[in-house]
Input
Amino acid sequence: MNENREFFYRRLHSLLGVLPIGIFLIQHLVINHFAAYGSGSFNTAAGFMHNLPFRFVLEWVVIYIPILYHAILGVYIVLTGKNNTRRYGYFRNLMFLLQRITGIVTLIFIAWHVYQTRVITIFTQETIDFDFMEAILTQPFFFWFYLIGVISTTFHFANGLWSFLVTWGITVSPRSQRIATYATLLVFLGVTYLGVRSLLAFGMGV
Amino acid sequence: MEATKTKQETITIIVTRQNDPSSAPYEETFHVPYRENMNVISALMEIRRNPVNAEGKETTPIYWDMNCLEEVCGACSMVINGTPRQSCAALIDKLEQPIRLEPMATFPIIRDLAVDRSQMFDSLKKVKAWVPIDGTYDLGPGPRMPEKKRQWAYELSKCMTCGVCLEACPNVNDKSDFIGPAPISQVRLFNSHPTGALNKGERLEALMGEGGIGSCGNSQNCVQVCPKGIPLTTSIAEMNRATNIQSFKNFFGSDTNY
Output
C-alpha cells in the first residue's frame, strides 16, 4: 500500500461500523425481540445462537475485535475534534456532535454489558437466559441504563450509516444525502423499536 | 428597526485583540462615527485614523489583513458577530450592534485580526492544485472543455482560500492535521480539467496522505459557511468515492493507478 495508513485506518473504521458490527447489532436485537413472545421463545432463539458452531471464533472475529478497533480509533477521533455546535448549530453539525456523544455512551454501555453478561458469567457459571436478563432489567437503575445504552447504540449505528454512505462515496449529491437522512431515521426507529421492545419484555414483563 | 439603525450617530465595535502570536487575547471596545454605506473595513480604517478606545484612551491601531475589497481575494476574513466571513462584504447597516470582531482562531494569529493562512497554501501545494504544463517544448493546445462543464468548474474555481470553511470545521484544529474542505474541492476541480486529469492519480494519492480526506467527519459546516456557495460537501463525497477507487486500484494490483 502506497497511501498513508491513516486513510486506510479511517476507512476500515467506517467499514467495520456497518460490517460486521451493524449487522451484528441488528441480529442481536432481532434475537432479543423474541423476548416479546415469552421466555420460552427467547430461550430457544438465544440458545440457538449460543450453540452455533465455532461460537468462540465467531464472537471474537465478528464482534469483539471489530468493536475494539472501532472503539479505540473512535475515541481518538473524538479527542481530535473540537465541537462548535454553539457557533454553528446546523443539523449535520449537531449530528456530528451526537455521533461523538453516543459513541462514548455506547462504549461505556457495551463495556458494562459485555462484563455483565459475558465476563462475570464465566466465573459464576450462570446461564444467560430470559430469567438472567429479567433479574437485571427489573432493577430500575439497570433498566434505565440499558434503555439509554440501547438508544445510544441504535442512534450511533443509524447516523453512522449515513456517514458511511458519504465516506464510501455512495451518496454524493445533496439530494441523495438528504434522502439518506430520512432513510437512516427510519433505520433508527426500526432498530430502536426492536431494542426497546425487548427491554420492556425483560424489565416490565409486557 | 432599519431606520433607527441608520440614524444613530456612532457604532460600537468590540474587537478581540492580540499583540503578537504568543500573547494573550483581550477585548477592546471602540465607538466609531457612523457614515452611510460603511462596511467593517471602513470602520476599522476609521479606528486606525483615530485610535482611541471607548474609554477615551489612546491605543494602537487595529491590525488586519485586506486586499481586493470585493470578496474575491479572501484576505480580510474574520469572525464577525460569530460568523466567519469577509469584512469587506460585511455592511455595518446589516450587522447587529455591538459588532464583535474576532480573528479566525483556527489559524495562527499574527496580530489582532490578522491570521496566517499559509497552511492552506501548503495544502494546495501538497495536493498539486494546478495543471502542470511546463516543459522543454510547446505541448500545443489541450482538449476542449464542454461549455456546461466549464460553467460548473467555474463555481469550484471561485474558491479564494479565505479560510472560512476551515474555521467552521470541527476537525480542523491544533490537535489534528486535517487539511480542511477547500483543498479537497480543488482536487475535484483540477481532476475534472481535461489536461489536469492527466495527473489525477497524484492528487488523489495526496488526498489519501496525512491529514487528508480520511479526517473529514461530515459535519458539513463548510458548505453552510462558504461565502462563494461552493458545493464543498459534494466535492468531498465525490473525492471520497474517487480516493476509495484509487485505493482499491492500488491494493488489488491494477497497474493503471496513475
Q: What stands out?
A: Residues 112 and 119 of chain A are 10 Å apart (CA to CA). The first helix of chain A runs from residue 5 to 18. Chain A touches chain B at residues 1-4, 6-11, 77, 79-84, 87-88, 90, 92-93, 95-96, 162-163, 166-174, 177 (CB under 8 Å). The two ends of chain A are 54 Å apart (CA to CA).
